[in-house]
Design goal:
about 220 residues, alpha+beta, Immunoglobulin-like, six-stranded antiparallel beta sheet, three-stranded antiparallel beta sheet, about 35% strand
Length: about 220
């Protein structure tokens, strides 16, 4: 009898741990079609996110609870001889809210606001990230392969306290993706190498004068 009880306890513990693992590791958001494009201002990130909105989240936002979605981007340079170098990190909050007077849903990112007649229309835009400036032109990048990472998640820390507590046990209030990793190699236009002085020049200041007034501006841009 005692052996049977031990077996039952073991099976129950395994089932509990399996459920917790699925709860922690499950990705409610899938990151698709992510890419980095070089533009005049720098490098912009575009990505598509696939996810479903639970009825509880839809009811919460329709009842006046704003939801904050956090987009995170990181760029690192792997180094075999030392720790990886973190080249850049960007974070951006997108606020989804409902205004009862106008009966419209709003997406807000900084000073930018967009209004929609339904939550479905707002989510269609939220699922499409376009041309987010993550790397400014002239920042110090090397001629090397970088690893880029991006993810999207509902920021539970900005929910009201009762919702934060409920999110610990309810999967309907959690919404996040894992890190989507991909390779990125910047073009030579983004290499920020320092100018090398000409060899055999006795008076380097004379070369600086002969370069003209645009030289200092070009160096600063690098």
């Amino acid at each position: 009898m005692r052996g049977v009880l031990l077996i039952l306890r073991f099976v129950a513990a395994v089932a509990l741990l399996s459920g917790v693992a699925r709860l922690v590791c499950a990705d409610e958001i899938e990151v698709r079609d992510v890419r980095l494009d070089e533009v005049e201002e720098g490098v912009v990130l575009s990505a598509d996110f696939a996810f479903d909105f639970s009825p509880r989240l839809a009811h919460a936002v329709a009842s006046g609870v704003p939801l904050y979605f956090l987009v995170e981007f990181e760029l690192t340079r792997p180094r075999w001889y030392w720790f990886d170098e973190k080249a850049a990190a960007r974070r951006q909050h997108v606020r989804l809210s409902y205004h009862a007077i106008s009966r419209q849903y709003r997406l807000s990112t900084g000073a930018l606001q967009q209004s929609f007649a339904s939550v479905g229309e707002a989510l269609a835009v939220l699922r499409r990230l376009r041309n987010w400036l993550v790397l400014e032109r002239g920042m110090a990048l090397s001629d090397a392969d970088y690893q880029a990472e991006v993810r999207l998640r509902l920021d539970l820390s900005l929910l009201p306290k009762p919702f934060q507590v409920s999110a610990l046990t309810s999967s309907e209030l959690r919404l996040e993706s894992g890190w989507r990793r991909f390779e990125f190699h910047p073009s030579p236009a983004f290499f920020a190498a320092q100018p090398v002085p000409e060899r055999g020049t006795d008076k380097p200041e004379s070369a600086e004068k002969s370069a003209g007034p645009g030289a200092s501006g070009e160096a600063a841009a690098r």
